[in-house]
């Protein structure tokens, strides 16, 4: 079997178009402009790229974008004071603090200082609890994007066997909650899982979110399964020239695509959906704030 490619880039484009149309309506009918504030502490190059891309796309859909770039040595008190100011700013509907934070800052404390209603990452402990109990919450963007692609491809996911590889708070755990919410039978596999290949071979849906380049080979994939690759790994590509890199996912694309029924590519799969979902979450936060 040769897998159908799930085009996350195109899908993200349609999500952004829908968000932009809604923003236009909010502006003209209600005189409201959704606003997203992104806070970046330090100069991590990958984070800088993400933040720039988020800011650009926020403006493109007609929203207000505010970026706060803070020195790597910013104190916890100063960061918390900025978040407090943003929590109380009525023109800001979504707040995102780019992770990872420098070591001297307590990530949990910082995330939990964001107003849950403005927590467009869905990382606040209240949103985590609401998602886990099936209540209305802000849903983390990457797993939300994966779920949207899965629903679009399959329609109903009810009764499917899903294996999520990776147990991070950002992707693995919320992904498992979302799949459970759609009535999948869910397994969370991780570095201590016994016989990972056998566990993955049972899956109708495989979500790989471990951050290890090309870790999942094709012979772990059940014939016809859907493979969602969350990994974005930069590996050396000497064939492209000295010092060059290329992006690969957490699955070995060529061999997995031979067995899967459908697969997301890297790049152009999950990545673009994450930012599109951030914009959708900001719109949702704005609509909830304004009744
Ligand atoms: N760093 C890597 N992924 C994310 C994300 O989804 N949100 C935030 N805030 N930081 C990240």
UniProtKB/TrEMBL annotation:
Its EC number is 1.5.1.5, 3.5.4.9. It catalyses: (6R)-5,10-methylene-5,6,7,8-tetrahydrofolate + NADP(+) = (6R)-5,10-methenyltetrahydrofolate + NADPH; (6R)-5,10-methenyltetrahydrofolate + H2O = (6R)-10-formyltetrahydrofolate + H(+). Residues 140-288 form the Tetrahydrofolate dehydrogenase/cyclohydrolase NAD(P)-binding domain. Keywords: Amino-acid biosynthesis, Histidine biosynthesis, Hydrolase, Methionine biosynthesis, Multifunctional enzyme, NADP, One-carbon metabolism, Oxidoreductase, Purine biosynthesis. The keyword Glycosyltransferase does not apply. Coiled coil: none annotated. Pathway: One-carbon metabolism; tetrahydrofolate interconversion. Pfam families: THF_DHG_CYH (PF00763), THF_DHG_CYH_C (PF02882). One of its GO terms (biological process) is methionine biosynthetic process. The keyword Mitochondrion does not apply. Residues 6-121 form the Tetrahydrofolate dehydrogenase/cyclohydrolase catalytic domain. One of its GO terms (molecular function) is methenyltetrahydrofolate cyclohydrolase activity. NADP(+) binds at residues 166-168, 232. GO terms for cellular component: cytosol. Belongs to the tetrahydrofolate dehydrogenase/cyclohydrolase family. Homodimer. Catalyzes the oxidation of 5,10-methylenetetrahydrofolate to 5,10-methenyltetrahydrofolate and then the hydrolysis of 5,10-methenyltetrahydrofolate to 10-formyltetrahydrofolate. This is Bifunctional protein FolD. It comes from Halocynthiibacter styelae. The gene is folD.
């Amino acid at each position: 079997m040769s897998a159908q490619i799930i085009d996350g880039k195109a899908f993200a484009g349609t999500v952004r178009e829908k968000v932009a149309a809604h923003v236009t309506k909010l502006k003209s009918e209600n005189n409201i402009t959704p606003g997203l504030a992104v806070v970046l502490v330090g100069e991590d190059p990958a984070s800088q790229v993400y933040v720039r891309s988020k800011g650009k796309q926020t403006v493109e859909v007609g929203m207000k974008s505010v970026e706060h770039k803070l020195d790597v040595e910013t104190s916890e008190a100063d960061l918390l004071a900025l978040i407090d100011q943003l929590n109380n700013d009525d023109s800001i509907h979504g707040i995102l603090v780019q992770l990872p934070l420098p070591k001297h800052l307590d990530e949990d404390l910082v995330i939990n200082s964001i107003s849950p209603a403005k927590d467009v990452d869905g990382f606040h402990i209240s949103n985590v609890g609401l998602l886990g109990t099936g209540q209305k919450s802000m849903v983390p963007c990457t797993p939300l994007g994966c779920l949207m692609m899965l629903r679009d491809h399959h329609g109903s996911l009810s009764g499917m066997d899903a294996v999520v590889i990776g147990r991070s708070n950002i992707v693995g755990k919320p992904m498992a909650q979302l799949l459970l919410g759609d009535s999948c039978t869910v397994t969370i596999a991780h570095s201590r899982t016994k016989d990972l290949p056998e566990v993955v071979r049972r899956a109708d849906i495989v979500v790989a979110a471990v951050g290890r380049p090309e870790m999942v080979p094709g012979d772990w994939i059940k014939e016809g399964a859907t493979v969602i690759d969350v990994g974005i790994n930069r590996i050396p590509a000497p064939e492209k020239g000295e010092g060059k890199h290329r992006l690969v996912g957490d699955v070995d694309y060529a061999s997995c695509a031979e067995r899967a029924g459908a697969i997301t590519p890297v790049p152009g799969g999950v990545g673009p959906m994450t930012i599109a979902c951030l914009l959708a979450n900001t719109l949702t936060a704005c609509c909830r704030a304004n009744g």
